[in-house]
């Protein structure tokens, strides 16, 4: 059963690990919720899930229990800060990192049963370019790439975007520079990447907002709390508020009866094309 409100579906990815993707996903989710939005976060890093740690949630069950048939999706959902609903991924289960056809069908069935009334469904993806990551990215309405101003992160982010555009014809790709020293640095980083994308791929990406380097981020992680509730007046928290407002202004042409049904149908479509 699906709600009649248009749920915005956002996939958050990165070319490489260690760039703060989950930190961005968690804090964006909590900030949107603090602004009155109904938010569900799906930790789709199905091999090394850790969003529950960043949210400070106890998760007795996770997505592996859904795919095994032991639990339904509703059974494993837990509530985090500001009412964010978390679908916990699996951690330390190697075969979960790359899903087979049967498991993908299980995901489709699991999300078909969700009857939550949501404004935002945020998918925190694994790093890299596995088939599972691309399946989820293809199923989202908006794709955000988190990167740092480091050569390897920039190269991997560009490689990820190249695959998204050339092999999957994806659009609505937005960049979130993370850990920069200023908004100017983030905007310059975006400008240089977007220029290469325009010149070599004949496409473009959107600039969303940058997250400034802030020692409070590490402190919040060590405290197992989202930064935006741990240190709401910190520099990076203000950046997350600005990012959330940019996200709230994003347009969507998904019909009013879309929402999670769109996500489920796109997974099924991608599976059919690549199965």
Task: Write up this protein.
The chain is an alpha/beta fold. The protein has a single domain (8-274), classed as Rossmann fold, CATH 3.40.50.300. The chain is built from 12 helices and 9 strands. Strand 6, helix 7 (151-166) and strand 7 (173-180) form a beta-alpha-beta unit. Helix 1 packs across helix 11 (235-248) and helix 5 (101-112) packs antiparallel against helix 12. The model has no long low-confidence stretch (mean pLDDT 90).
Please provide a brief summary of the model.
With 275 residues, the protein is α/β, with parallel strands linked by helices. The chain contains twelve helices and nine strands. Helix content is 45%, strand content 15%.
Defining traits:
single chain, 275 residues, alpha/beta, Rossmann fold, 9-stranded mixed beta sheet, globular
In CATH, the homologous superfamily goes by the name P-loop containing nucleotide triphosphate hydrolases
* Rounded Rg: 17 Å
| Low-pLDDT sequence parts | none
Number of strands: 9
Shape call: globular
């Amino acid at each position: 059963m699906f709600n009649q409100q248009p749920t915005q579906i956002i996939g958050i990815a990165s070319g490489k690990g260690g760039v703060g993707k989950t930190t961005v996903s968690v804090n964006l989710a909590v900030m949107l919720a603090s602004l009155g939005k109904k938010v569900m976060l799906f930790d789709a890093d199905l091999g090394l899930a850790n969003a529950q740690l960043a949210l400070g949630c106890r998760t007795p069950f996770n997505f592996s229990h859904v795919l095994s048939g032991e639990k339904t999706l509703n059974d494993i959902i837990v509530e985090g800060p500001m009412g964010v609903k978390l679908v916990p991924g699996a951690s330390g289960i190697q075969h979960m990192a790359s899903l087979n056809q049967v498991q993908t069908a299980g995901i489709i069935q699991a999300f078909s049963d969700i009857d939550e009334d949501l404004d935002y469904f945020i998918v925190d993806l694994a790093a890299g370019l596995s088939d599972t990551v691309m399946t989820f990215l293809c199923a989202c309405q908006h794709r955000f790439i988190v990167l740092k101003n480091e050569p390897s992160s920039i190269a991997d982010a560009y490689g990820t975007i190249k695959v998204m555009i050339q092999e999957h014809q994806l659009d609505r790709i937005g960049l979130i520079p993370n850990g920069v020293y200023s908004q100017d640095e983030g905007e310059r980083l975006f400008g240089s990447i977007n220029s290469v994308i325009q010149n070599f791929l004949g496409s473009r990406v959107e600039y969303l907002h940058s997250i400034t380097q802030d020692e409070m981020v590490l402190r919040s992680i060590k405290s197992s709390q989202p930064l935006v509730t741990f240190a709401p007046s910190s520099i990076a928290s203000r950046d997350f508020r600005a990012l959330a407002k940019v996200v709230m202004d994003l347009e969507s042409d998904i019909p009013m009866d879309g929402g999670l049904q769109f996500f489920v149908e796109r997974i099924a479509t991608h599976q059919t094309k690549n199965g």
